[in-house]
């Protein structure tokens, strides 16, 4: 019900806790940010302000230039000061109240990549951190920032509506769908079984967006994250739905295991604007979905000429349902981009 998320940050800048609603505002999953440095999420110009507010007297010691900054590691940083409770003001003191603004990295923002948040709360003792100094002596509870983080600019009615429909999907490394949450089933109309049975996930992507998505897919395999990707997905009602997505690799034992994609539905006007910006970077207009994904010396058996008569379209549609047979006959890999495009029902275009 909160228009924001809860955040608990230790005196050294580690995120001890975040409520799961952080994903609705910043796009990061709760599990991904907990026990990580908060400074990795904060704009470089705002990091010192955040560090000041972690100190009870708003006067943190400065780390020497040759020492690593506290955001560089997970251990007790050089700027973290250990206090005894009797050295600090009473826990109910107004000295420990905090209200300030910082810009946080936001995967859902398509302009600056940062979202200005108002953090309001207080410093309180954080117990049971299970940390010990190098000498092994027990560590007394230290102050941590307990804050409610809310966007500085209230979201518009449209943003509230689309925020509530953010959905997540899980894929194999080649993008084959594995799972979809409840909101995704509402937006797209498919059941999880229908998504899993269809092979590669690219047959749900608009032909004009396939190369663009594939390029970001390759980037994600290299860097671990795709960045914001705006494209059209085919719904079960044979309609195209614009979404803004961010895909990231999930690792296990140091090796990539699967892909998790966070997707936010967009209205057609937003999608069209992104398409216009994208087409400016391409050497030719690639907007109708009728362009060929590969140079081909032979006609495509199951993707008909868009200018042919309506009478021929129905026969072509029947051919498209036999895509497996055609693909094998013509030597086209059904899991390739061209094979995925040939599997689509041409009526959607």
Secondary-structure topology with pairs:
Elements: E1 5-10, E2 15-18, H1 22-26, H2 30-33, H3 47-54, E3 97-105, E4 114-126, E5 142-151, H4 157-163, E6 167-171, E7 177-180, H5 182-188, H6 192-196, H7 210-223, E8 229-234, E9 240-252, E10 255-265, H8 268-279, H9 310-321, H10 323-329, H11 337-343
Antiparallel strand pairs: 1-2, 1-5, 3-4, 4-5, 6-7, 6-10, 8-9, 9-10
Organism: Oreotrochilus melanogaster
Domain PAS: 1-61
Region (Disordered): 58-83, 305-336
Task: Write a concise keyword list for the protein shown above.
single chain; nucleus; 11 helices; five-stranded antiparallel sheet; Beta-Lactamase; elongated; PAS-like_dom_sf; 349 residues; alpha+beta
How is this structure best described in words?
By secondary structure, the protein is α+β, with helices and mostly antiparallel strands. Among the domains are: 1-58 and 95-129 and 141-154, Beta-Lactamase; 156-282, Beta-Lactamase (2-Layer Sandwich). Helices cover 25% and strands 23% of the residues. It is built from eleven helices and ten strands. The protein has a five-stranded antiparallel β-sheet with strand order 2-1-5-4-3. It is elongated. Mean pLDDT is 76; it is low at 64-79 and 284-327. Residues 322-332 have a biased composition (Basic and acidic residues). Residues 58-83, 305-336 are annotated as: Disordered. This is AHR protein. Keywords: Activator, DNA-binding, Nucleus, Transcription, Transcription regulation.
